[in-house]
Design a protein that fits this description.
- The chain has seven helices and seven strands.
- The radius of gyration is 16 Å and the shape is globular.
- Helix 3 packs across helix 4.
- The chain has one domain: Alpha-Beta Barrel (TIM Barrel).
- The two termini are about 10 Å apart.
- A seven-stranded parallel beta sheet has the order 1-2-3-4-5-6-7.
Length: about 180
């Protein structure tokens, strides 16, 4: 994750060979990544943060992978934007594994139906994503996401951040969202 970090902070990571980067806000990504990607076309940019439907066109233009697809209105907005742009980013469906009202993510009970909607759309389904509740041991939530992925025949798992990525990897993560550890 490169949120709040400048182009000057990111440049040494690119020079060291890092090619996957994440941002949590479309506006911040739009301010720093187009020029970086022009000079480094191998960069793969991930949107990690919650995406508003009205920013779908900007997200489709900027990002290769979106990790926060969590509702029908956003699915429709991404499909419309992708159709107009002629490109469809890979998408992870964010699952609200902690059933927290204040967090984004599809409800556990709605996951199967929503995955069916995504699968019939032109958006490539990359996998499932979760953010466990703060202050709780993340392992049970990562294990739940792994089980949901098995049950719904989904390969990718986006889970784990700087503080808990090792646990996430042991429970099947294919994508981890490490940021603060890279800039320490």
């Amino acid at each position: 994750m490169t949120k709040t970090h400048s182009v000057d902070d990111i440049a040494p990571l690119i020079a060291a060979g890092q090619s996957d980067f994440g941002e949590s806000r479309v506006q911040e990504a739009a301010a720093k990544w187009p020029a970086l990607r022009e000079s480094h076309p191998d960069i793969h940019l991930h949107l990690i943060g919650r995406l508003q439907s009205n920013k779908a066109a900007d997200a489709v233009a900027l990002f290769d992978t979106i990790h926060s697809l969590d509702r029908r209105s956003l699915l429709d907005a991404l499909v419309n934007a992708g159709t107009k742009a002629g490109r469809f980013p890979d998408c992870f469906v964010q699952v609200n594994v902690g059933e927290e009202e204040q967090k984004g993510g599809i409800a556990l009970a709605d996951l199967g139906d929503f995955l069916g909607q995504v699968r019939t759309s032109p958006l490539p389904l990359a996998g499932l994503m979760c953010i466990p509740p703060a202050g709780l041991e993340p392992a049970p939530f990562f294990a739940l996401l792994s089980e949901l992925a098995r049950r719904h025949d989904v390969a990718g798992l986006s889970m784990g951040m700087s503080a808990d990525f090792e646990v996430a990897i042991t429970l099947g993560a294919t994508h981890v969202r490490v940021g603060s550890a890279l800039f320490a």
